[in-house]
Amino acid sequence: MAEYTLRPVGRVESALTDRAAAPRQPDEGAPDAWLVFDDRYAPALDGLVPGTDVLLFTWLDRADRETLAVRPRGDATRPVTGVFATRAPDRPNPIGLHTVHILAVAGARVHVRNLEALDGTPILDVKPILTPDR
Amino acid sequence: MAEYTLRPVGRVESALTDRAAAPRQPDEGAPDAWLVFDDRYAPALDGLVPGTDVLLFTWLDRADRETLAVRPRGDATRPVTGVFATRAPDRPNPIGLHTVHILAVAGARVHVRNLEALDGTPILDVKPILTPDR
């Protein structure tokens, strides 16, 4: 099958630097963080509103792409499960999906609440959360 | 910034073949479809359960990656908006996110309800929807 090239549009700026210590989910102690976009993508941010939630897509660049099955959350008591049935970061295309609350937008920088991504994580995309009236 | 290579894990098999005629959202007449995974990824599917909803990530390979702002849904009466504040397919990294209901799993093929992706669309990833008890 054809391959495709991801071109990151920015990076996460966060106090989280150690994968082993990182929270697995945002409600497990993740800090606020900055999404720092390359200046050329500033026009794509027009319309993001502080106080709203959006979907953030990242590339989990420290993940192992050969892993196809895991024990969820590294718990030895849980059965081995295919990675497509888990949120494990190790997977063939390690795309991270995060729901983040926008605290502020300052030029090409966006401040968000409780992000469990590591410092330096490449940003791929941002999308609104669909509501019934869209 | 460094670039990364996506390796699709399968393709959508659907009656939808024309982008102009495709529904924009699954509740706008999208047909049932098959997710056809490469056999080598079958172990990653272990744990997917018919009757449940999952998140499907695709690569919108017919999108224009240079577009940074659009009128949402092509509606000339709506203001120009940055693509990160819309669900437009045209965007720097055109990742499609779809919530799909699993009808059946048959080997490395997964039958899903109401998918608005075109026939042949590359599949990147599948993730469970997080629930409070995970």
Polypeptide structure, described:
- The structure is a homodimer of 134-residue chains.
- With 134 residues, the first copy, chain A, is an all-beta fold.
- Helices cover 0% and strands 35% of the residues of chain A.
- Chain A is built from no helices and nine strands.
- A six-stranded antiparallel barrel of chain A has the order 2-3-8-7-4-9.
- The model of chain A has no long low-confidence stretch (mean pLDDT 92).
- Chains A and B meet through strand 1, strand 4, strand 6 and strand 9 of A and strand 1, helix 1, strand 4, strand 6 and strand 9 of B.
Give the helices and strands, then pairings.
The structure is a homodimer of 134-residue chains.
Chain A: E1 4-6, E2 10-13, E3 33-37, E4 53-59, E5 69-70, E6 81-82, E7 95-106, E8 109-113, E9 122-128
Antiparallel strand pairs in A: 2-3, 2-9, 3-8, 4-7, 4-9, 5-6, 7-8
Low-confidence stretches of chain A: none
CA distance, first residue to last residue of chain A: 34 Å
User: What is the 3D form of chain A?
Assistant: globular
Cα-based radius of gyration of chain A, to the nearest Å: 16 Å
The chain-level structural class of chain A is: mainly beta
Oligomeric composition of the shown chains: homodimer
| Order of helix and strand elements from N to C terminus of chain A | EEEEEEEEE
